[in-house]
Amino acid sequence: MRHSRGISDSLAPRRAKIARQVVLPFRKSLEISVKNIRVRFLRSMVTVASLVLAVAFLSFILTGSEIAAGMLRAGNPGFRAALIDAGYDLPATPPPPALAAAEAERLGASPKERWIVILSLLVCTVGIVNAQLMAVTERFREIGTMKCLGALDRFILRLFLLEAGMQGLAGSLAGALVGILGALLAGLVRYGLSGTAATSVAGLSRVLVVSIAVGAGLSLLGVVYPAIVAARMRPVEAMRAQE
């Protein structure tokens, strides 16, 4: 009994050393994730394209609300009339100056537009989950090889989260910029240069940050389940699936 305990104690440092060897640093995980995105560039672009469209629609709606709020804050009666003609539910008589700012803050997208945005984001999330599940199926042998070489479950999980994070940031940034530019052009056509110029830079910055955060969050949310499936996969099953 003492002999076996001594052997176990002597092997403990070696086991700890092996455990440290199989845990790759974050930089190596990032390199592998970038390489995987390059290898599967077309599939990644399909996932990113759906995210770009959803985020662009979101930022378009938010920017339109910011343009309308900026026109109300300007206090120009002509701007108010233009907004009423555009379909905004506003009283013809402007409120007192003390309530003008509150009216501009309450101005937002219509319930119909909100539901359309929610549905588009939901469809985008389902598409991301489907694309990531297909990616897991295609990478059975790769995942099995990494796990046979000593990759831990959290390393596999980290790879998928990093890939989804990079795709989410790229797609969200592109979609947010497209939506903001589209809304500014639409506002320029509808309200003219003077009406669009009333939009605050802080409001546009807020729209950009919110759109990127929502898009990146949806990308990470859509990859959680596929990443867990890949991380829990047994090496023998992964290697056998491609035979």
Task: Please name the defining characteristics of this protein.
243 residues; mainly alpha; 10 helices; elongated
Q: How much is the average pLDDT? A: 76
Count of beta strands: 0
Structural class by sheet pairing and helices: mainly alpha
Radius of gyration: 26 Å
Counting DSSP H or I runs of 4 or more residues, the number of helices is 10
Number of domains: 1
The SSE string, one letter per element, is HHHHHHHHHH
Give the overall shape, derived from the CA principal axes: elongated
Q: Which residues sit in consecutive blocks of at least 5 with pLDDT less than 50? A: 1-8, 16-21
Largest sheet: none
Give the N-to-C terminal Cα separation.
45 Å
Share in helix = over 70%
Strand content: under 5%
Description:
Residues 116-234 form the ABC3 transporter permease C-terminal domain. It is a multi-pass membrane protein. Belongs to the ABC-4 integral membrane protein family. GO terms for molecular function: transmembrane transporter activity. This is ABC3 transporter permease C-terminal domain-containing protein. By secondary structure, the chain is mostly helical. The protein has one domain (25-241). Helices cover 86% and strands 0% of the residues. It has 10 helices and no strands. The protein has helices at 2-22, 26-39, 41-74, 77-85, 97-106, 111-138, 140-148, 153-197, 201-231, 235-241. It is elongated. The relative contact order is 0.17. Mean pLDDT is 76; it is low at 1-8 and 16-21.
